[in-house]
Automatic annotation (TrEMBL), chains A, B, C, D:
Domain HTH tetR-type: 14-74
InterPro entries: Homeodomain-like_sf (IPR009057), HTH_TetR (IPR001647), Tet_transcr_reg_TetR-rel_C_sf (IPR036271)
Stated name of the protein: HTH tetR-type domain-containing protein
GO molecular function list: DNA binding
Length: 204, 204, 204, 204
DNA sequence: AATGAATGAGCCTTCATTCAT
DNA sequence: CATGAATGAAGGCTCATTCAT
């Protein structure tokens, strides 16, 4: 029927979507979520404004897709780590370091807040974001649990510890906003140590 | 006419300003910073829109004043604590608890991010916010230092520890956004313990 | 409190609203409902676009207000006629003539259709329009009933006759669209005669 | 290549055009003329948007073609009736009944109004629509004339009566908009009676 | 000081139409 | 012919800010 390659089109379409999401993230990271408008996203993506709407239904749709993608990727990463045969502290260290190293990550945190906060956002989106956040807590709690069994992570409810760890990472991420200098270095090592069981207090 | 009236007027004016700031905070806490507009703030304050502009130059002016006031109050509070004759852990505990308990606090954190982030915001405001944030780190670091001397707080750069502590508190605060349920309880005790030196690892 | 005259303001506000409705009707009558946009209405009213929104919540709000006002005025007029001590045929004649003579009336009919038809219009508005239309049928039916009792109006269900009469008037009104010449004159006399009982077929 | 193929192609093209017009009418009848867009028409027709433009030059082109086709079919029908050997009242009755029974007919009336009304529509199209409307009045007037000669239709200018009859039908059709309930039944018999000469007033 | 009507820039979104493939 | 991605011009609506009263 079609004189064009349907499969290729489909692939192109998916690539384009991803590209728009990338650009949206860039714009948010650059300008903040308040100032990030569709026009700028389109420009960043090298598309016309109208064309963006061929790939997404609305601005909120774009934002929630960015958030969803980020949350899913993040969750997958943590889950992968949970399965590894490693010292839990090393896992935390690695997670911490790679998170801090990615400059766009703070945009996710900002978006998470904005989507929660903005009353005009579809409540379902807000719930979905919360659901994913909560779900992502689970593999992190599993890592804590592993560490506790090995006696290298402090005692306490693993889920609560996971929650604190994630909140700390998020809190730190926010401090890393572009153009905002903090006179304190962030060291994964020190962060992990807060959650580590000291050598001499371990059960024999 | 009389000097007393001038003084009284000045006082009234200051009271009004404070009232507007209170209401602005309320609105932000209720609607989120994106949806908080001047009209709503004026309505909450029982004033006309135009009249609000008799007390503040712009919306940004209001927001930055809210933030500034919050940061200053917060800084004063921490400084006061630093001077007390108390176990550092109790100080942290009290700071933590009172922060979490105040539902509007998350609005400050949101605002901090928004003001940092928003390109359109006067760069001087952004720098001022950062400056105050950094300044507020100092008394917190002092508390850490006190705790370390008493052997009840973990070792490490006090300022860095203070930074982590504040970031953790901020991160947790964000999770407390209104209408957003997190299936984990926040306990000041557990938080403080992360920064505490375990009994049996203390130097004699 | 206010340095301005509140009552006068309220009156001004109501006058303004009416003025906007008048202008909206003019624009619709001139350009058709499809082409009638808020900008044009504002221009016709000598206001800025934004200011129109100080008086109405939305374009649909304006349109439905225009319609409502027209329907209410029309209903009132028919009801007044129903109470008069006149030959029913004269009543119909007068209603017919005055309706046809008002050039904007066709806009109401167009609007009625558009509001019914347009899926994006609030269903409640649509129902309200229908409700008023149906309600307005009643006094017209009463006139028919009076005429039948006097033996000057054709027999049949008065409400149905009213419905036909109104539909005929509406149908004719539509033909009177501006810039649309129909080579047939519209005579109230002839129209009324269609609904009249012929002399020699009346019951003695 | 062969002339037969060219003919066949031509036929196929014509069939396609007709199909598109059918679908356009369906969409208009379903969504109203304001919401009827090219994309929906294409989807209804099972074609791509671009392909529709291989058969019509513009959206207005489609709409005016729909209208034209409808008007021509309608005119042909009335003309056919005018030639029949039947009581004029039966002709009116049949015309009335078949018109009311076809649910899409109201779309024509709506379109007629929209095309007349819409400033942006090519004036030639508007004139063409008016011309056809006027032309279609002629066979209807002929039926009236026949009825008057047989003494079964009320006296008066036949063309004017035709105009009233058509306007009444159109007015009633508009009341039949989808999703719009009118608490009055429409009976062809009663309608025709309005235009009928009563038994006992006929000339011997 | 107090009011809120008025302004106008800017944002999101839609859609007829074009065009490379 | 067939496709649907791409364009860009409007249109509806919001809102910070101003200003006459």
């Amino acid at each position: 029927m079609s004189p064009r390659n349907v499969e290729k089109d489909q692939l192109l379409r998916e690539t384009r979507r991803e590209h728009i999401l990338d650009c949206a993230l860039q714009v948010i990271a650059k300008q903040g979520i308040d100032s990030a408008n569709v026009k700028d996203i389109a420009k960043e993506a090298g598309l016309s404004v109208g064309n963006v709407y061929n790939y997404f239904n609305s601005k909120d749709d774009i934002f929630s897709a960015v958030l969803q993608r980020g949350q899913i990727n993040y969750g997958r990463k943590i889950s992968d780590h949970a399965l590894l045969e490693l010292d839990a502290r090393d896992k935390l260290h690695e997670i911490c370091e790679s998170w801090i190293a990615t400059p766009e990550n703070w945009a996710f945190t900002i978006m998470l807040q904005s989507i929660r906060t903005n009353e005009t956002v579809n409540p379902e989106l807000r719930e979905a974001a919360t659901r994913r956040f909560t779900a992502n807590l689970e593999p992190m709690a599993e890592i804590m649990r592993q560490g506790q069994e090995a006696g290298v992570i402090v005692e306490g409810d693993p889920k609560q510890l996971a929650f604190y760890f994630v909140s700390l990472i998020q809190g730190l991420t926010l401090q890393l906003a572009p153009g905002y200098e903090i006179p304190v270095s962030i060291q994964a090592k020190t962060i992990v140590r807060l959650f580590s069981q000291p050598e001499n207090s371990r059960k024999k």
